[in-house]
Amino acid sequence: xxxxxxxxxxxxxxxxxxxxxxxxxxxxxxxxxxxxxxxxxxxxxxxxxxxxxxxxxxxxxxxxxxxxxxxxxxxxxxxxxxxxxxxxxxxxxxxxxxxxxxxxxxxxxxxxxxxxxxxxxxxxxxxxxxxxxxxxxxxxxxxxxxxxxxxxxxxxxxxxxxxxxxxxxxxxxxxxxxxxxxxxxxxxxxxxxxxxxxxxxxxxxxxxxxxxxxxxxxxxxxxxxxxxxxxxxxxxxxxxxxxxxxxxxxxxxxxxxxxxxxxxx
Length: 265
Ligand SMILES: [Fe+2]
Ligand SMILES: [Fe+2]
Prior knowledge:
Blueprint: H1 25-53, H2 59-84, H3 93-110, H4 113-136, H5 138-141, H6 146-161, H7 165-172, H8 177-205, H9 212-234, H10 249-255, H11 260-263
């Protein structure tokens, strides 16, 4: 059981300066995309888990689900406040969020609940791989503002803590390998284009126009990160995969002493 009930995010979560325009367009794209998706995505994840919750009788698993819902709820609220500060930079996050909300509403309406939970399990894996990079790869994070990094690392640590909750629930309610792979395909087909569209929309709004050199540097950083992440990402396709086969306990143990919020548990 992890120390899930810390109940607060790092402060301050208002936008440190500069969030935008620090010469890392690729990093911006990634951050903006994740930031913008977070609240609508997290609400979708919570709903898909809560829908199946009543089928779980094991008290420890119920407690883990409760903790998952609590953590994702806090992330959504923290990111809502954080995203609001984008207005300062002339970026219309609300427009992007309305669009993301519409996408997730459609998924809720059209997809069977097992596939919705399968999408959540897959999204949690992608998030956990990103979280692994944030806590493990100093080179990838060296240009991020320290306050911003603290905020992101808090979120990353909590993502690692609860990374197997949706996956375990998915299997508990009868999801098997084929349904898990089908969920991956549905997630890619329904979410890849909206995510790219949102990223592009936010980058178009960004007052900083990256130079050629910045674009090249950013592309090189992205390639390097992707090369490191590829084996972790692809591991999800193995029939016998479980999230804790990627053991992040040491990364978490390293983060706890360094975080103000972790101390407050
Ligand atoms: Fe989250
Ligand atoms: Fe999560």
